[in-house]
Write a structure and sequence with these properties.
It is a single chain. The protein has a 7-stranded parallel beta sheet, with helices on both faces. The model has no long low-confidence stretch (mean pLDDT 94). The chain contains 7 helices and 7 strands; from the N terminus they run βαβαβαβαβαβααβ. Helix 2 links the parallel strand 2 and strand 3. The chain is globular and about 45 Å long. With 250 residues, it is an alpha/beta fold. The longest helix is centred in the middle third of the chain and has 29 residues. Bound molecules: NADPH dihydro-nicotinamide-adenine-dinucleotide phosphate (NDP). NADPH dihydro-nicotinamide-adenine-dinucleotide phosphate binds next to helix 1.
Length: 250
């Protein structure tokens, strides 16, 4: 028996990184999983790993900055599996650079993906989650409460997620729906690839781990475990689980 036997779970941004680890972890615990991403090949690879773990899997290749994708992800999942128990809003990206150099299109894309998409995925998921007394985990960041030069607007999007989560939790608590965030420190994924050169990424990881995150990079599987913990923890709502490799130690 798995801890999430026959539960229906959506993990957005599950073609790589934290989302991939989370989808596989749910599959190993008996859940049926909707996986999403833009890269069809990588997504098919993750879906295959979930199937091998015993899950029924729905693959949805979509661009989450497109508003119409959001309702579609929820509707297709409910059509395929008949219900929805858990929504993990994980898809996200960042931008690097000072505010002074930020372009409007970069700002809008970031807000659409990191803020608008999770909010409206929640909106469309709520009627279904009400029926199952389900739950939502929003993947925020340990940066949500901190200030980093060059990452100001990314930090803002994650602060917005923390606050949205507390608000939505209070709106939904009477319906038995729980809403939480997980706030990872630095995890080695593809996240930084579009932001920095290979040399920059390698320097950043080394320097960041050594100086700011004393326990080093957080394994993505630990973030996945944290997400599964929040989904199974019947008394946790409106809260943030920080797993940051010691980043928060002052
Ligand atoms: P990855 O880049 O490995 O994964 C990001 C996922 O989001 C991929 O599946 C990607 O799909 C999907 N995605 C990105 N942009 C879009 C888009 N426009 N439309 C649809 N899907 C999209 O990064 P992580 O696993 O690191 O990131 C996952 C979450 O964790 C993010 O919300 C991030 O902010 C957060 N986080 C990451 C940390 C880290 O250090 N890595 C630290 C703290 C938080 P595809 O590649 O197929 O387009």
């Amino acid at each position: 028996m798995g801890k999430f036997d026959s539960k229906v779970v959506i993990v957005t941004g599950s073609s790589s990184g934290i989302g991939e680890a989370t989808a596989i972890a749910f599959a190993k615990e008996g859940a049926n999983v909707t996986v999403t991403g833009r890269n069809a090949e990588r997504l098919a690879g993750v879906a295959e790993k979930c199937r091998k773990a015993g899950a029924k899997v729905l693959e949805i290749v979509c661009e989450l900055t497109k508003f119409e994708s959001l309702e579609l992800v929820i509707n297709k999942t409910v059509e395929a599996f008949g219900a929805l128990d858990i929504l993990v809003n994980n898809a996200g990206s960042g931008i690097m650079g000072p505010v002074e150099k930020m372009e409007l299109n970069e700002y809008e894309e970031l807000m659409q993906l990191d803020v608008r998409a999770p909010i409206f995925l929640c909106k469309y998921a709520l009627p279904h989650l009400r029926k199952t007394k389900g739950c939502i985990v929003n993947v925020s960041s340990s940066f949500s409460t901190r200030a980093y030069p060059g990452m100001v607007v990314y930090c803002l999007t994650k602060a917005a997620m923390d606050h949205f989560t507390r608000g939505l939790a209070s709106e939904c608590v009477a319906d038995g729906i729980r809403v939480n965030t997980i706030n990872p420190g630095m995890v080695v994924t593809r996240f930084m690839d579009p932001l920095l050169s290979e040399q920059d990424i390698s320097n950043f990881r080394k320097d960041f781990s050594a100086t700011k995150q004393p326990l080093g990079a957080v394994p993505k599987e630990e973030i996945a475990s944290g997400i599964l913990y929040l989904c199974g923890a019947t008394s946790a709502t409106g809260t943030s689980l920080v797993v940051d490799g010691g980043l928060g130690i002052e």
